[in-house]
Each structure stands twice: as structure tokens, then as C-alpha cells.
Amino acid sequence: MKSTELLITIFLFAGIWASHAAAEPSGPGNFTSDQFSKSGICSNCHGSSFGEWSGSMHSNADSDFFYQAMLQEYGRAAEAQGLPPEFCSRCHTPIGMVSAEIPPLDGSHLSEVSKEGVQCDFCHSVAESEGIGNAPYVLEPGDVKWGNRADAVSPSHGIEAHEFYNESGYCGMCHNINHPVNNLTLAATYTEWEESPYAEEGVTCQACHMTPGIVGFEENPGKAASTGPKREHVYTHYFVGANAFVTDVMGEGRHEKRAIEYLQHAAELKVTAPDSAEPGDNVEVEVGVTNTGAGHKIPTGVTEDREMWLELTVEDSEGRELYHSGALDSEGKIDSGATVYHTIFADSEGKPTAKAWEAESILSDNRISPKESVVEKYSFIMPENASNPISTKAVLHYRSAAQEHIDELFGKGAYNVPVIDMAAYPEEKKSSTPGFGIIGAGIALFLGSTLRRLKR
């Protein structure tokens, strides 16, 4: 081989190797935290987006007290069982993780920018992803910021456009979680969406969680930057989910309110029950629960902690209680006979565990998929002294964690986990926030046309 050909071959091989190396997920020690800008700097031009993000669960991803309590438990288990200590931090403080400021997990080595959780410069330094789940992001921090607009111009930094920023796969990097050792699925919000009718219709995560509407695309005209042009649509940065517990405790009222609105527009109930019965009759009641508004299962996320349950109350004409299921006792526990929608993991001995790192298998998962319904059946014997007509009320409740678990972590009385009424039958008046429940082919077409206009 001639020397010129050899040099070309070496250069080509080096280029291929460098390209492959660049595509590897960013890991601990790849960067230093001073390569990333604090979000306050971004607010100089992106004030609206910064204001929406500030106080969100993304901004509090590392400072969330509930997460921190669980993280310290995980840290002790990781040390004892040889689990990767940075596993949770890869999503909750990504800059701290890639800057090798984690471990230790107590945050004592975290820089100020790393404490900002899922923040502006991290998100807009993601150049690509190596897949779904467990945060396989590839970062390129620096003067160039990544986004979804090919025509954007900034006086402060360069801009690279990537269609990836319009895709649900971007969210799927962190919103699918597999066990770091046995690969058991611990959370699968992205996969739940991917297998849903919404994915088929082209309704993305961003269409629901980055627009003003409540789980439904709603156009948001305005400016993405103070120096930029007026646009037909600008994505919002609230990133609202269902967490009205942490947002409440941390004083983030705007985000708490929006979380409650999302919850109250996610499901509908339908009750089939007789309005009268004779003493001694077996009275049968059916409650249908439909996931009408979430593009993933309800509940979703870390569903070993989440609780969604039905409360059914039947009374006679005098207000005497004939049947009751789903009540809370004085300590906040749901009665044992209630229908609770969640995931139950089992440890290596097959025993239920709420500690995801101990999970070896799934004992049960009765959550409700997008646009699907389940029917729960109840029955009781009509008492002798009951009077007709019979009235039946069903309520679908939600809370971010079991009160018992919070009491174990922080002590009794430290925090009361709010119970949110998601839906009721007979139906109660809901929030008047527009945009929810109009999801369908029409919105998919509208969203698609809007995105095409944004690209032009």
C-alpha cells in the first residue's frame, strides 16, 4: 500500500472511530460542570421559558425532598449490593453525573449548576440519543445550543436544529427505566405512549406536556426568545405531570394547580346500579373507569409508589350507608378491599416491595391503558331497614405516594399526602381550563401542520 493510501485509510478509520465514540452515551467524567451555563443566564433572552420551567418538577428534579429520601435509601442499598451509585442521578442531576460530581449521593460535591436538576443547558446540549430508557443521551455542551428550529438565530450562541426535539423519543430517554442489574422494567411511560392510539395518530409527549392545553395540543403564539420573531407556536416549559404533592410542599403553587388540572381531566367514570331493591336482595353495582385523557397508562411513572383507587358509596333515601369501599382510615390507609390501580413489585423471595432496586419481578399491574376502560364489580345484600331509592356515588382518587410510606420516610405528621379527586359519578364540575379531551385525529393533523410550518 502506498503511503498516501495508508494515510487516507488511517484518517478514514480515525474518522469512523471518532464518530462512533461521539455517539456513545455521555458518562461520568466526560465533562466538567463549568462547561454548562446556569439557567438564569438563559432567562436573559428566554424569560418566558425560564419562568415556566422555574419551580417545575424538572427544575426540582434533584432538590425534591421525596426523591432525596429515596435516593439515600438507594445509596445504602447500592453500596451493600454493588448497584451503580449514579443510576438515579443520571436523570435527576445529569450535569452532576457527567461531571463526576456523583457520587457521593448526599450532594456535597455538586456544583450550583448541577443542583438545577433537568435544566436549560443540559436539555439543549443533547445532540442525540442512543435509545430509550436509562438516559442514553449524548451531550455536546458549548457555544452551540440544540433545538427544533432550523431558522433560529441568536446573538449569544450558535444553533443546531434536530428533529429529535419534536419527537417523543426525546422524553423517552428518561421516562423509561429498567433495573440497572436485572433489566426489569421499572417505569415505561414512553413505551405506554408508543403502544397507544396517540402514537398512531402522531400526538407526541410534547403536544400534551409542552403546550398550554391540558393533555391536548393548543397553539401558543409568541416569541421563543426576546430577540426572535413572533411565531405561530412556542412550546411551553412547565412539563406538568401529576405531582401535586411535592409541588405543594415546595411552595410551587402554579405547578401544583396544573398537576391537579391534568389529573382531573385524565379519566371518566360510569356507574351502573339499581335505584331500588327489596330487603335481602343481592344488589350489584358496576363502575367503569376509562382513561380518556392520558397518552400513557394511569397512573404512570414510579407506580410502585403511586396510588389511584376507587371509592364507592351506596346510601338509602335516609342517608344510611349501605355499602362503602375505598375509604381511608385515620392513618391514611386505603381499606384492604378497595380497588387500587398500581404496580406491585416482588423481591428475590417473591415478597411485595416498594423499593424498586429490590424488584426482581412484577406481581401485578392493573393500570389502565390510554383510551381503554375497565369495569369493577361490587355487590351487597340490601338490609332490612333500608329505604328506597338507593343513591350511588363513585370517586376515582389519586395520590403521589402512600401515606404510610411517607410516614416511614419522614415520621408521622411530617407531611400529609394530598388526595386528588380525578373523576366522580355523578359527575362533578371540572376545571374550565381549555384544551383537554379534544385529542384525536383532528388534533394530530393540526399538530402535524403546525410542526411543518415551524420547520419552514
TrEMBL record:
Alphabetically ordered keywords of this record: Membrane, Transmembrane, Transmembrane helix
UniProt xrefs under SUPFAM superfamilies: Multiheme cytochromes
Annotated transmembrane regions: 435-454
Occurrences of domain Cytochrome c-552/4 (ranges): 42-125
InterPro entries given in the database record: Cyt_c-552/4, Multihaem_cyt_sf
Name of the featured protein: Cytochrome c family protein
Species the sequence originates in: Methanosarcina lacustris Z-7289
Lineage: Archaea, Methanobacteriati, Methanobacteriota, Stenosarchaea group, Methanomicrobia
